[in-house]
Amino acid sequence: MFFGSLPMIFKGLWVTLGVTIACYLFAMVFGFVWVTLKRIPFKPFQWVVSFVLEFIRSTPPLVQLFFLFFGLPMVPYVGVSLSPFTVAVLGLGVHYSTYISEIYRSGIQSVDKGQWEASIALNMSVRDRWTKVILPQAIPPIIPMLGNYLIIMFKEVPLTSTVGVAGMLLMADKFGARNWAYLEPYTLVAIFFLLLSYPSAILIKKLENKMNRRFDKKDPTGAKNVKKGVAIDG
Amino acid sequence: MAEPIVTYKNVTKSFDEVDVLKGINLDIAPAEKIALIGPSGSGKTTIIRLLMTLEEPTSGVIEVNGQNLWQMEKKGELVRANEKHLRQIRGDIGMVFQHFNLFPHMTILENCMTGPINVKGESKEEAKKNSIEMLEKVGLGDKLENYPNQLSGGQKQRVAMARALVMRPKVMLFDEVTSALDPELVGEVLEVIREIAKEGEMAMVLVTHEMDFARDVADRIIFLENGVIAEQGTPEEVLENTESERLQQFLSRFRS
Question: Considering the entire predicted model, what is its pTM?
Answer without folding.
Answer: 0.84
